[in-house]
Each structure stands twice: as C-alpha cells, then as structure tokens.
Automatic annotation (TrEMBL):
InterPro entries: TPR-like_helical_dom_sf
Xref: Gene3D superfamilies: Tetratricopeptide repeat domain
Protein name (Swiss-Prot/TrEMBL): Sel1 repeat family protein
Amino acid sequence: MWKKCGLFLMSFTLSHTVYGLDYLPEQIELLKEAQKGNPEAQYDLAMSLQTTADMAHLKQSDFFYWLEQAANNKYDVAQDLLDDILAEYDPKLLQDLAPNGSQKIFDEVYQLDKQQPKNYALIVSKLKQAAELENYTALAQLSWIYGDSRLAKNYGVAFSTIKACTLATYNNLRHGDINKEDMEYLCSGDVLNRADWPQAQKLANKMAAEIKQKPTALFSLLDQLK
C-alpha cells in the first residue's frame, strides 16, 4: 500500500459516488475552500478521507477525486501521492480488503445512502454485517461512528471510545497498517479519556485478538466492553 504523505486527524466522510460517513463541520469548511479551487484544502480534504475510502472502488471515491484536483492544481505532495497510487494501484489486491462477498453489502449501503431521509439504523446494520465479514472499510467507518460523539448520535449508536479503539485495533490486526494513524489516534489517552487508559488499551488489544479468532462474533464480543 502506498505511503501517506500527511496526517489530518478528524472524522471522515465520502460524498460523490461511493458511500461514506456524513460530513462533519470540519469537512464542510474544508469542502467550501476545496470547491473554490484551493489546492491545499483539496489535499487536506483528500487526506481526511483516505483511510475510510472504499478501497475496492478507490478511483470513484472522494479521496481520489480531491487528491486528483489538488494534483491538477500543481500541489506537489498531491502530485507525488497520486503518482504513487497510480503506479501501485491493483484492484484485485484492493478487493482483498472486501473479502467474503462483503462488497455486495457495501453496494446495498450505497443505494441506501442515496435515499432521503437516510435510514441510519439500516445503514449501521449493513455496515455491521460487512464488518463481521472482515471488510476493511466497514471496520474503519464503524471505528469512527463509535469514536466520534456527533457521528454516534447521527447513526444511532452509543458513543464508546473503548469500542472505537477495539474496532480500529482489530482492523489493524486483520488488514495491516493501512489504518495505523487512525488506530493510534482512537486508542490514545486523549480520545479514550479515561484515568485507566493504559488498561483500556490493553483490554482493547485483548478483545481485538479474540475477535480476530472469531470475526462473526464481533459485535457480541464488542458488547462486553463498557
């Protein structure tokens, strides 16, 4: 997988053609500047979308769209990253991130996302189904849904930083360091915000290892966490 050329820690979203999380205020502000043709904002917006982009349809994602816009506007780091992606892009390898037929579920979620009003409960249910099939993007998005209070409210789940950390850790165990920066952030003391956060981290690591052994029991195991 290509190396990221920057870090932009916030909750993530997609909006063009591939399903993704709702926009949060930080992204709305970036989007306003990106739409004005600001290449730095375009790049920052792209980087905020990278780890939750649907890798199986990467070239249709907001991440790729805004990265390409920044590159077209001669933003050096965007040009370098885009060149790396195009040189290494292999759809077959990326499909390994959507194993066990889980991409079909994402296609269903995409159709649900186009409906107004959105059926958030059904979207979350589909994301959970895909996550139990070891889908990278579902795990990445659910990590942020649980780990950001605004997203948790939107999607109707109980805000839980320990569950977010566990999901991110399991995703990292299953798929490698693609989500390393997300995992480190979601499992940090600032986010866990607990006096016993080192113990919470250890608990998340232990639970993630158990989930890896039995991925279809992901949410029954996750519900044991408080």
